[in-house]
Amino acid sequence: MNYVLAVVTQFSNGADEVAIKARGKAICRAVDTAEIALNRFLQGIMKKEIITSTEEVETDAGKTNVSSIEIVLMHRV
Amino acid sequence: MNYVLAVVTQFSNGADEVAIKARGKAICRAVDTAEIALNRFLQGIMKKEIITSTEEVETDAGKTNVSSIEIVLMHRV
Fold it and tell me: 3-class SS at A39?
């Protein structure tokens, strides 16, 4: 719920767009955050775009690929 | 990798579009599946659209909401 609060707060503070980003297993939490914020808290806000990509991450065992998501919310025009 | 294979197989069998769907914690696996299939195996295929939504699911403890994702892949035109 902290992430939902962060999104709602940014819109309350006048943001036109808010981007929610996550990698790996946190991706489902980014989707939850967007869905809960839109369905329960935000009015007049819609999804602008959803982008998935692959990022290279440095670990102890060398470089590995991890999926990422970016969900951009914006004011409905 | 089984899901990646399933996607690649469907395109090999002549599919124009393949939709990858997941709910809850499996959402990150759907994103992984799409990313790996596109980056490593499929040529001339692109993401058509990514849709997230909220579904109501019946559990022992009653109805609960769960986030879901649908990633649609298609032939590049």
Answer: helix
Decide if B52 and A39 are in contact by the 8 Å CB cutoff. no
Cβ–Cβ under 8 Å, residues B35 and B3: no
Check B31 against A26: CB less than 8 A apart.
no
pLDDT tens by residue, A55-64: 999 999 899 9
* Per-residue pLDDT at B75: 94
Cβ contact B69:B22 at 8 Å: yes
Question: Does B52 contact A53 at a Cβ distance shorter than 8 Å?
Answer: no
Cβ-based contacts under 8 A for chains A and B = 50
The two structure tokens encoding residue A64 = 């590995």
ipTM value: 0.91
Q: What would the mean pLDDT of A69-74 be, rounded to a whole number?
A: 98
For B50-64, give the secondary structure using H, E and C. EEEEEEEEEECCEEE
Give the model's pLDDT for residue B77: 79
Q: Which residues of chain B have pLDDT under 70?
A: none
Measured CA to CA, the distance from residue A53 to residue A65 in angstroms comes to 10
Rg, chain B, Cα only = 14
Q: Which residues of B touch A35 (CB under 8 A)?
A: 52-54, 65, 67
